[in-house]
Amino acid sequence: MIVAAVLMFSSLSGASAASGPDSIKGLTVGLYHGQSMRQSVHFLMDYYRDEAPYLVRPEIDDAARFLSAADAAVARPFGSARNLESVEEASRSGVDLVAVLDAQAAFKRDIKLEKQARVSLKVEFRDLAGRRITTLEAESVRSPVVDARVRVRRDLYREFAAALDAAAADMEAQVRSSPELALFSSVRVSSGPAAKNVTGRALSSDVDNASYRLPVEPTAVAWVAGVERYEDGSSAPDAERDALAVRNQLIGLGWPDRNVLWSTGRRADRAQLLQSLATLRRRGVAAAKVFVYFAGRTAQDRKTGRTLLLAWDGGTVPLEDVLETEAGLDAGAALAVVEAPASLDKPRPGLATMAAAGVDQPRQVSETEGHGLFTLELLRALNGAADKKGKVSARAAFDRAAARVKESSAGQQTPAWSAAGGVDPVLVEGSQSHR
Predict the structure, then answer these.
(1) How confident is the model at residue 8 (pLDDT cuts 50, 70, 90)?
(2) 28-177 fold
(3) Model pTM greater than 0.90?
(4) What values do phi and psi take at 349, rounded to 5?
(5) Are strands 221-226 and 132-142 parallel, antiparallel or unpaired?
């Protein structure tokens, strides 16, 4: 078993996001209906008129229900919503972001060539500059219900209604749980002049998404946490953007989305970090791959000199405890990456450790990319920049990233590597893995 445990720590200042059901409640979304939505409304109106003219149930038959159900699925998780006549109207309508909603209602035939009702919803969220934040999709198919009085029903109005309800419920759940929207919310609604400066920066980088897609490993588990603005007002710039990019890389590496434990903002206090690490410890026993990532601030214990990870509420988690947890797993190899000034103590069996900078060195960020400099170069290495004969090992990725960081910082930031017994887990393998 190979365990890749990565802890990336970002220091300095930024904005925070509290992911979860209420993380986007402070935003106003503008709703714009795409061409497919309009075509689907006309399809349903024609279908109801031609196939089921006897129906008198407007809550099912009225094509407006199609619009209202789709709109509600997208709008409910936000604080408020406004309908837009055009995407260009968003900048002067007082909204925070735009949701371009497309939907399709059509027939689908099963293996017996019988008609089924299919409803698919797709929404692309954009910021006011037109940049894509995320795209979500939901679909539902319903087969006709056999009526006891007739063998086959011509109309599928009940099935279209059921498919719409199911797709809308799925879409609403995705909107509420989207880490991309939670991150956008953290940048958008953070108060103070620092937050306004962050909002003006480009929220897009070539490392935000993986350039590869490996086969899914069902037992792979990961722990990802990020904190930008702390309870006491201190901050760590781009910590949550770093965490989100690493999460996306993990999914590209084969981690199931459902197995990536996600904690950001207020949900990354000391108690919850310890609780989620305990869950990771339990799952790691049977997992084929384990990956741990943290973006936030660090500090040094004055008495022991140990590096401490700072949680949202100011509580601390010793880096040594995290490393001991990883080294204690029954794994062939483990990797820990600290993106912040950190002290690397004695190597542990089966564990390799990276640090973005020494204790007395500054940790730098890329203002144009919106990521910590070491994280940025490390993820670029994973995306193929360090590809050697169809694979990327942890050491190869580190060597490439460290060289670029030294060059960009004019030698002021020197990443460090420590490994016991030549540990060097392979993170990407096979040239066919790249998209």
Answers:
(1) very low
(2) Double Stranded RNA Binding Domain (3.30.160)
(3) no
(4) -55, 130
(5) unpaired
